[in-house]
Amino acid sequence: MKQAVLAALLAAGLAASAAGAQTVKITPLGSHDGEFCAADRALVFEDPDGTRILYDAGRTVRGADDPRLGRIDAVLLSHVHVDHLGDLIQPSANAGECGKPDLSVKATPNSNTVNIAADKKATLIVGGEMPSFFQVKMKAAGGDPKQVRLLRFGAHTRVGKVGVVSVPAVHANGLPTAFLENAEMLAANGLTAYVGPPGGYVLQFSNGLVAYLSGDTGITAEQDLVVRRYYKANLAVMNIGDNFTTGPREAAHVMNVLVRPASVIASHANEPATKGGKLLPNTKTATFKKLTKMPVHIPLSGRTMEFAGGGKCVKGC
Ligand SMILES: [Zn+2]
């Protein structure tokens, strides 16, 4: 009898440590191997259950054939600006400079994001007024309009075991005419098309990790009220590029005071932030890292980072 109890306790202990050892793998898909470069935004998240989610493919994922993608179950798009939706892509790995990658391959009018989602038969999750637009694009790219899933602020959906939530981003979301047919009138007037507000996401992984993906945003009260207090994000992917979004100082405030995650991945720096994989001084990324109280991890292209359920990086950082 005693032995049976002991065996049961042992088994329970082993099961608990196996769950605790489960990690979410996050792999940046940038323009230059092993570096954090100006155009880099794209990340692939892999849940312990095997679900793979691509966030903001942008210009550095080299089309649906990019061997770094593997299987993709869902594609997330924060907003439709060219550097996120993907109007142009790199012809080959490491083409051009880290500060100015060679983006000579056109992905318009369908976009890099839609081409990838269509080819991978992945669910494209978007908010605002974007679904109807992307249904048309999905069909044009050879996909099924049913692949497009609506997710507006406050709502929750699921991909495999991963919960996906839409949160606000304070930014713009005009659709550039390069992605439109017969848009000469808009182009002649310097206007973009209305597709509703931009957004960010919260991903709830099966090991307990809760990741906030800021999208392009300024400082907003929802980072405190919604992202921290309600969803309790313990990892943040924070855009720091300035001009278009929070700069490094504002982004550090958002981390230290509003979101307060266990760790942070810098994103969208719009600069060559590293050389030989080492963070360069006098960069926005270095300023952000210095001012942020929690560990800031640099998304080096192709290097997989692994995060435990509590938000700490346990491998590859
Ligand atoms: Zn952007």
Structure description:
The chain has about 325 residues and is of the alpha/beta class. The protein is about 25% helix and about 20% strand. Strands 8-7-4-3-2-1-18-19 form an 8-stranded mixed β-sheet, covered by helices on one side. Strands 9-10-11-12-13-14-17 form a 7-stranded mixed β-sheet, with helices on one face. A hairpin with a 5-residue loop joins strand 11 and strand 12 (about 210-215). Helix 3 (about 110-120) packs across helix 4, helix 6 (about 220-230) crosses helix 7 (about 250-260) and helix 7 runs parallel beside helix 8. The radius of gyration is 20 Å and the shape is globular. The termini are far apart. Zinc ion binds near residues 244 and 268.
Keywords:
317 residues; alpha/beta; eight-stranded mixed beta sheet; 24% helix; globular; binds zinc ion
Shape: globular
Report the β-strand fraction as a percent range: 15-25%
Tell me the total number of β-strands: 19
User: Radius of gyration from the CA trace?
Assistant: 20 Å
Bound molecule kinds, no repeats: zinc ion
Question: What's the helix and strand layout?
Answer:
Blueprint: H1 2-20, E1 24-28, E2 43-46, E3 52-55, E4 74-76, H2 82-85, E5 88-89, E6 105-106, H3 112-120, E7 123-126, H4 130-140, E8 148-150, E9 156-159, E10 162-168, H5 184-188, E11 199-204, E12 210-213, H6 222-228, E13 235-239, H7 248-259, E14 263-267, E15 274-275, E16 278-279, H8 284-291, E17 296-297, E18 305-307, E19 313-315
Helix pairs in contact: 3-4, 6-7, 7-8
Bound molecules: zinc ion.
Give a short synopsis of this structure.
With 317 residues, this protein is α/β, with parallel strands linked by helices. 24% of the residues lie in helices and 22% in strands.
